[in-house]
Amino acid sequence: MKKILITGARGFVGRNMTANFRENKDVTLFLYDIENELFALKEFILESDIIFHFAGVNRPKEDEDYEGNLGSLQAVIEICESEKHIVPIVLTSSIQADYDNPYGLSKKRAEEALIRYGMDNDVKVFIFRLKNIFGKWCRPNYNSAVATFCHNIANGKPVTISDRNNIVNLVYIDDVMEKFKKIPFYEYHDKSKFYHDIDTFYTKNLGEIVDTLYKFHDSRNTLLLPNMEDDFQKKLYSTYLSYLPDDGFAYDLKMNVDGRGSFTEFLKSNERGQVSINVTKPGITKGNHWHHTKNEKFLVVSGKAAIRFRNIDSVEMTEYIVSGEKLQVVDIPPGYTHHIMNIGTTDLVTVMWASENFDPQRPDTFFLEV
């Protein structure tokens, strides 16, 4: 059983780390944050096998630099040394540590203090100069530009960029967590290596990020999914969704309704085609058309249907009887005219996938009775 102390447990990184470690039954957590009394920090340290020090100030006022970034770490080190309870410490620093500004200097001094602790006590320490982190629970207008962009766009607020071409290096919070979760179980062979990296990162310009986020926002109208093969887009979309307001999770779809039932487009993808929901009234037949290249998959989820096919050069008909009682996918090949008939007594509900998004300029749909 590993006993782990997380300082700054209610911050962006600390909250994610806490949620990840709570999934591990071989871990006992001690959580410390600014509202805790200092005596609690001492008690937690003396119980811990390793310390993840995430406490600090991201946008400090002038008098907060030392106390927020160096002072909080120094308090941890002093307790460890005075109580002779020497344990590994993981520190989240910043790429700003290379810059000559109050925040960067405070991060640099914290790094130096931790290195001294490691060398003086022959104990392993880890310093991560994290790039711009993005992901769920990141505080807008504080932690990162991506958090602010996501929050504003998801909530209908304006976004201001001083330079669209400004390049940023980014790491995703769950990639950071994958690295951090392994640290308590490392064997520390090289105690002289102080600095460590997150292997996966992304280099983007601010304009590209904002344009992508606006596409996510507009996807409720376009129905276009992000390209999930693009690792960055997949992670950015998950981040964007986490900033939706609680009353903004649901949205309406355009239902095309007539006496036969309804047809509603649900999702579209430039790479994977589109998904639609088709409702057919009892006794109604829909379809009687064929395609050159487009192909489809029909899945009846409620009701009972007869799906019939005929090769356009043949008089032979093939029939499948399907229902929501036994889910079965029916492929619709090109070159076969086809229709679906509701042969039940209730509305027929069919999930339909098409291999390409519908293009009215090139519908690839030709009427022919089965």
General description of the model:
The protein has about 375 residues and is an alpha/beta fold. The chain folds into three domains: about 1-130, 3-Layer(aba) Sandwich (Rossmann fold); about 135-170 and about 205-250, Rossmann fold (3-Layer(aba) Sandwich), CATH 3.40.50.720; about 255-365, Jelly Rolls (Sandwich), CATH 2.60.120.10. Helix content is about 30%, strand content about 30%. The protein has eight helices and 20 strands. The protein has helices at about 10-20, 40-45, 65-80, 100-120, 145-155, 175-180, 205-220, 230-240; strands at about 1-5, 25-30, 50-55, 90-95, 125-130, 130-135, 165-170, 195, 200-205, 255-260, 260-270, 275-280, 285-290, 295-300, 305-310, 320-325, 330, 335-340, 350-355, 365. Strands 2-1-3-4-5-8 form a six-stranded parallel sheet, sandwiched between helices. Strands 10-11-12-19-14-17 form a six-stranded antiparallel sheet, with no helix packed on it. A five-stranded antiparallel sheet has the order 16-15-18-13-20, with no helix packed on it. Strand 10 and strand 11 form a beta hairpin. Helix 5 runs parallel beside helix 7 (about 205-220). It starts with a strand and ends with a strand. The relative contact order is 0.09. The model has no long low-confidence stretch (mean pLDDT about 95).
Keyword list:
Jelly Rolls; 370 residues; Rossmann fold; 8 helices; elongated; alpha/beta; 6-stranded parallel β-sheet; 6-stranded antiparallel β-sheet; 30% strand
Short description:
The chain is of the alpha/beta class and 370 residues long. The chain has helices at 12-21, 38-47, 65-82, 102-121, 145-154, 173-182, 206-222, 231-241; strands at residues 2-7, 27-32, 50-53, 89-94, 125-130, 132-134, 167-172, 195-196, 202-205, 255-258, 261-269, 273-280, 285-290, 296-302, 304-311, 318-323, 329-332, 336-342, 348-354, 366-367. It has 3 domains: 2-130, NAD(P)-binding Rossmann-like Domain (Rossmann fold); 134-171 and 204-250, NAD(P)-binding Rossmann-like Domain (Rossmann fold, 3-Layer(aba) Sandwich), CATH 3.40.50; 255-367, Jelly Rolls (Sandwich).
